[in-house]
Amino acid sequence: MRHCGAHHAGTTTYLPTTTSTSSSRARPGRAPPMPHPPLVAARLCRRLLCSSSRGLFPHAMASSFTAAAAAPAAQQAGTQREEYEEVLGRLSSLITQKVRAHTGNMGNQWDLMERYLQILELEEPIARMKVIHVAGTKGKGSTCTFTESILRSYGFRTGLFTSPHLMDVRERFRLDGVDISEEKFLKYFWWCWNKLKEKTDDDTPMPAYFRFMALLAFKIFSAEQVDVAVLEVGLGGRFDATNVVKAPVVCGISSLGYDHMEILGNTLREIAGEKAGIFKKGVPAYTSPQSEEAMASLKQRASELGISLQVSDPLKPHLLKDQHLGLQGEHQYINAGLAVALASTWLEKQGHVERMPLNRTDPLPDEFIKGLSSASLQGRAQIVPDSQVNSEEKDRDCSVVFYLDGAHSPESMEICATWFSRVTKEDRVPSSMEQSRTGGKSRKILLFNCMSVRDPMRLLPHLVDTSTQNGLSFDLALFVPNQSQYNKLGSNTSAPAEPEKIDLSWQLSLQSVWEKLLHADKGVNGVNSSETSQVFESLPLAIECLRKMAREDPTTSYQVLVTGSLHLIGDVLRLLKK
């Protein structure tokens, strides 16, 4: 196989980069933006143009109005984009530099959340909110997505708060299944930001990034008067910012595993105990099937609160009446089963008993099936062809297809490897990607990164072993830093221009672990091979390398598994979108 210039194992050759950086300059004190006069002018012009089409105005006059409206509209778009970049800069300023494993993180002045709610006058609105609260290690985002989609299919106005975002921070706040508009996001951001800036001080500092996001979600959902708010816990449960909800309608725990152990504990019992922190007295609780150790901890907490904890079985495919889940992967039937239980209980508690499933054996109501089959969530078992290569070489058969999954725990690595092995064997590419198929040989490539707080020896072995068990081996592994580490939130994400500023020590350590895994059975101790792995100083360089290989060898299809970090998934999607 041909390889592009990069950090081959055992070398330290740097490739030049020519990307640029940008930043938003935060201005002190900002009032919420008022409606722009150009918008009024544009609307007036549209009315006049409509009149001209009915013969009331000459075409020449219509043309002059078109030109007059275009300039202010473009100016307004530019102004709003600048304002949006400024907001992203302010959000970035809330990202704490404290390492998440810091000993002071447990709780980390969690009682400040009550003060923030008082400042934003959100206590009563949250008390009235009809919340579905979900924690877990794996699948909590998918469970929330399924649940929201089901209830939206019934016609309820829905709010969905999830994390992290992949390409745009507005993805975290969905209204009726759609990311919040830029206009509304800016309006609610400034409302929260200005009130907090006015009332915070040394004793009550500005909330950290995720806490601000949760507060913003509560403001958005209350102001938009949603019928149901589906909240995904950010980390843990007991001290999570979403846990200020005192009386949710129902709580759920998705599959548990080993993740964020530096904060939540080293055993499943400890981790489950933190997740069970969202349980509330008098509130029904459901869980996906768990290991014995985790289940014992969940049951203990439920018993202390005097509530029953019910286990939701994985959804049986026949209940969907020959439809398929909107999210790929066999494991999604576990998440769908929990979502059905949560949505059913919410309907019951809100007095909609007639809309609930009759039993566990008959097919689900049409609204449930529609919600489950139409649910969508980027970065989870998602297949994306590289349209740049596949379109520019359409007279030839070369192709690059990316298989994206944000797995970042040992258990999810196994699920990810099983999915990738299955779909590449079946060549299950949607019909719109037909031009991507070469019909010839294929190469399996791994594009990987994970956060430095995670132990690669708990991730990569599960990926390799499960792949091997499914008859799949990787021809090449590429290790890259996340683009988003350079610009946390801004839309113009780019790597530093100077190569010497790039620290690749983590990526080199990942490569070392990979090589040891590959050569362990051959008796080779820590010897790296440039034929099986490479380290790149930026993600764009790695993707360009893949494209170059595809162009030079058009008889081979390149099937690229991207995993290890949802941030990496977002970076890849952003680059492919360009």
TrEMBL record:
Superkingdom of origin organism: Eukaryota
Protein name (Swiss-Prot/TrEMBL): Uncharacterized protein
Organism: Avena sativa (Oat)
